[in-house]
Design goal:
By secondary structure, this protein is mainly α. It is built from 17 helices and no strands. The chain has one domain: Hypothetical protein af1432.
């Protein structure tokens, strides 16, 4: 089996499908203060599969509503634009990458991704309250692994085995095996999807947030969020070694190790609800 060259790997990432065009319109409408709940609900409902997934997520035990939410517009009114937008991105990203190789547990990765997105909002609140991009960056921080598994399944499984055998990080062994690290692949896919530069940067640098020149805050939030998932039992198993505590992120945000541990404890408290959220995504 011949290892692809770097240019070839990059070209294949750039040929992956974009997110559905309706998602761009939904995200734009959600960011427009003049958009009504009815208008946003109608836009989401124009995609029947997406709207059905949104309603399953909204009616999962994670949100714990006492009565059934019957329409997307009703969900927007109750949850707000911000949370419905996040649910829409979650459903779209998940639906774009459902399959997997037999040896790479993508269900576990999406469980980790959901927990990371939720944790990122908790970290962002502790870091001053600006939640912009936090859920998205947490949710998508490992999207490069999904991309490489989709495009190079045999080589990616080899990279996973190499990481485990040599007790190393998958982004390192993927670069050696495929020619492109999972971090770089994630950044390229984020560009392909037209995501904000801050989120793209957080995906690339969440393991070394100090390397982010313009968006170190979001990269640091993502770093702490990802770390917090492992003690809570929401880790992702493709790495062959434990993630170190991100000291630079902690120092940059002014968040202590104890505060990060508190985020982990919160995830533990919500474990069943997060699993139910994943079950709603998998229901199709």
């Amino acid at each position: 089996m011949i290892k692809p060259d770097l240019d070839g790997a990059i070209d294949r990432i750039r040929q992956l499908p974009t997110l559905p065009s309706v998602l761009g319109r939904i995200l734009g409408a959600a960011a427009d203060p003049s958009t009504s709940a009815l208008e946003l609900g109608q836009l989401i409902s124009s995609d029947l599969s997406l709207s059905a997934t949104i309603l399953r997520l909204v009616n999962s035990s994670y949100y714990g509503f006492q009565r059934q939410i019957d329409s997307v517009a009703q969900a927007v009114v109750i949850l707000g634009f911000f949370k419905v937008r996040n649910l829409t991105l979650t459903a779209s990203a998940f639906n774009n990458f459902r399959g997997s190789t037999c040896e790479f547990d993508r269900t576990q990765l999406w469980r980790h991704a959901l927990a990371s997105g939720i944790a990122a909002e908790y970290v962002a609140r502790r870091a001053g309250g600006d939640l912009t991009g936090s859920y998205e960056a947490g949710l998508l921080h490992d999207i490069g692994k999904v991309a490489l598994d989709t495009l190079f399944p045999e080589l990616f499984v080899r990279a996973v085995h190499k990481a485990r055998e040599e007790k190393r990080y998958i982004h390192e062994t993927a670069e050696e095996t495929i020619g492109l690290s999972s971090l770089a692949a994630g950044g390229l896919l984020a560009e392909r999807w037209g995501l904000p530069l801050s989120i793209t940067d957080a995906i690339r640098y969440h393991l070394e947030p100090e390397k982010s020149k313009d968006y170190q805050r979001l990269a640091s939030i993502t770093a702490l969020a990802v770390f917090s998932t492992y003690p809570a039992g929401f880790g992702e198993a493709s790495n062959g070694c434990d993630l170190p505590y991100p000291d630079s992120a902690s120092e940059f945000l002014g968040i202590s190790r104890e505060e990060c541990d508190a985020v982990s404890e919160t995830l533990v408290e919500h474990r069943e609800k997060i699993d139910d959220l994943l079950g709603a995504l998998n229901a199709d």
